[in-house]
Amino acid sequence: MGVLRFFTFLIVLICLGGGAAHAERRVALVIGNSAYKSVPRLANPANDATLVGGMFRKAGFDAVDIKLDLNASEMRKALREFGGKTRDAEVAVVYYAGHGIELDGVNYLIPTDATLETDSDVLDETIALDRALFAVEPAKQLRLIILDACRDNPFAKTMKRTIASRAIGRGLAKVEPNSPNTMIAFAAKAGSTASDGDAKNSPFAAALVERLPTPGLDLGKAFRFVRDDVLKTTGNKQEPFVYGSLGGDDVPLVPAKPVATGPQANQQDAVRRDYELAMQAGERDAWDAFLRAYPDGFYADLAKVQLKKIIAEETRAAAANKARQAEDEKARLAADKAKKAEQDKAAAAAKAAEDARLAAEKAKQVEDAKAAAAEQRRKDAEAAVAKALADKQAAAEKALADKIANDKAAAEVAAKQAAEKAQRDGEQKVAAVAPTQTAPSLSPQETAKLVQSELRRVGCHPAPADGIWTASSERSLTLFNKHAGTKLDAKLASFDALDAIKSKPGRVCPLVCDRGFKADGDACVKITCRAGHHVNDNNECEKVQDKKPVATREDAKPRDDQRKKVEGTPAKPQATGQMYCGQGGCRPVQKGCRLEASRPLTPQAAGAYASGGVVEVCN
C-alpha cells in the first residue's frame, strides 16, 4: 500500500506540474573495435559499445553515433564529423572500447587494420588520444572521454624497437587535460591493465551503465561508484581511475528532472536524498534517525526493511559469538577432564548456541532478501516516475513545437495575404508588409569573436577567438577570401562575413605544416623516418648518403718560395777547422785563409807563410 500511495502521489504531482524546461544539447560518439586483423579478436568491445550507446540514447542524448570495428581512416572521419556536432553542444562524450597503446608517455587508440610491426608504425597507423580531446573541445559545459582500452596489448609484445631505450608502457599513461571541465576516465589506473571478465560485457562497461545515467548524480561521484563496483567485481584487481577535474557545482551526465513544483515536491526530494544518505551510511543509527524524521510514507517502509536487515545481522553476529564461546567452554572442560555432568551440560549449551546461530543466519538471509526486494521496488518506482516525467516532457515539447510551427504557418499566410493586397492596391511597399530580417543585436566584440571562431573552424585562423579584430584577424579573413572565392571586407567583422563562413561545412584554408611535419586530418604530425633515413627539403624521407673522402693536392707554391728564399741568402762565413803549425807553435787557420802545398815563393804569395811543406794562403 505504501508503494501504491507514493506512486499515486507522484503521478498527481506530475499532472499538476508546469511545462518542461528546455534541455541542454548532449552528444556522444561510441566506438567499439573487436575484429582486429593482425591480432586475435576481442570479445567484448563491440558488445560494450552497443550497451553504452544504448545507455546514452535512453538517457535522452540528442545525438548518439555508435561505430563498430573502424579502421584508421574511418576513425579519423568519425572524430572529424563528431567534432562538428560538438560546436553547439553543452555536453560531449567519446567512449572507446578496444586496444590502446602508450609510447613514450603518449596514448594512442588502435584501429582494426593496424599491424604495428615496429614502434615507428604507431605514429602512422594509430589515432592519438589528443585527437579525441580535440573533437570534444568545443563543448561548453562538459567534455568527457571514457577509455575501456587498458587491456593487455598483444601488439607491444611483437613490436620491434627502432630505438632500444624507447619506452612502451603497460596499459595507458597518465594524462592531465589542459582544458577546464574535461575528464578522462580509464578502465584501469595508468600503468595497469583491465579485464574483459567472463560475461558478455566488461566489468567497467557494466558499472558505467548502472551508475552514469542516474538523473542528477554528479559525474565525479558517479565515477567513484563505478570504481567501487569494479573493485568489488574483480576482487580488487582492477581499479578505474579518472584524470582531470570539474568545478564546485555538480555536473551530472543526465540532468535531474523535477518531480513536481511546490513545497510538496521539494519535501519528497529531501526525503529521497536523506534516504540515499542513510543507505550509504548503512548503520543502525542512520536508519533510526531517518525514521524519527520521516515515520510514515513510502521511504519509511523501505527504511524499516533496511533496519530489520541490520538487526538480523547483529543478531547473527551475537549468536555466532555465543556459539563460539560455548564450543570453547566445551573443549576446555574436555581438556581438564571435568566431570561427565559438567561436560554434558557444556555440550548441551554448545548445541543450543549452534542452533541459535543457524536460526539467526536463516533469519538474516530472509531479511537480506526482503531488503533487496525493497531496494528493487524503490528503483522500479523511481524509474516509473522518471519515465512518466520524460513522456510528459516529450509531449509538452511536441506540443510547443507544433504551436510554433502553426504560428509560423499562420504568419506566412498573413504576410502573403498582406503582400497580395498591397500589390492589388498598387503600393510599392511589399517589403514593409513582409517580415523583415534584422541583424542580431550583438556588440562589435561579440561579432568579432563569432567570426574568429568560424574562421578557426574552417582552418583559416590559428589563434584563439578573443573578440579583438587585429591585423592577424584581417589576414585570416583575407586568406578565407582567397580560398573561398569571396570578396569580404577584411578590415572589420560583419554579419555578412559570419554568414559566408558558416555556409562552408568543412575546412577551407589548407593545412600548412612546418618542415618535418605532415598533415593528418586537421592536425600536423611529425614525420618519422626509419633508421638510416632523414627528412629532405621536399619533406620526404630519403636515405642518408655516405660521405666519401676527397683527395686534396698540396699547394707547391709556398714550398717553392721557401726554397728560393733559402738559396738567395748569402752563406755565412764559417771556420775551416784546420790547424797551422809553425815555428811559434800551432794555431787555427785564420779566417778567410786556407792551407796549400808549399812551392817556391812568388810575388803573388807574399802574404803566405811556409811550414813543413804547407803554407797558409790569405790573399
- Overall body shape: flat
Radius of gyration, in Å, reads 47 Å
Label the structural class: alpha/beta
Spatial order of the strands forming the largest sheet: 2-1-3-7-8-9
Q: How many alpha or pi helices?
A: 17
Number of strands: 18
What's the N-to-C terminus distance?
158 Å
Largest sheet: 6 strands, mixed
Helix content: 40-55%
Task: Please specify the SSE layout and strand pairing.
Layout: H1 2-16, E1 26-32, H2 45-58, E2 63-68, H3 72-85, E3 91-97, E4 100-103, E5 106-109, H4 122-125, E6 127-128, H5 129-136, E7 142-148, H6 154-158, E8 182-186, H7 203-211, H8 219-233, E9 241-245, H9 263-281, H10 284-293, H11 298-335, H12 340-424, H13 430-433, H14 444-457, H15 471-484, H16 495-502, E10 517-520, E11 523-526, E12 533-535, E13 541-543, H17 557-568, E14 579-582, E15 585-588, E16 594-597, E17 609-611, E18 614-617
Parallel strand pairs: 1-2, 1-3, 3-7, 7-8
Antiparallel strand pairs: 4-5, 5-6, 8-9, 10-11, 12-13, 14-15, 16-18, 17-18
Describe the protein.
The protein is of the alpha/beta class. It is 47% helix and 13% strand. The protein contains 17 helices and 18 strands. It has a six-stranded mixed β-sheet with strand order 2-1-3-7-8-9, with helices on both faces. A three-stranded antiparallel β-sheet has the order 4-5-6. The longest helix is centred in the middle third of the chain and has 85 residues, at 340-424. The radius of gyration is 47 Å and the shape is flat. Mean pLDDT is 79; it is low at 1-22, 260-264, 428-439 and 604-611.
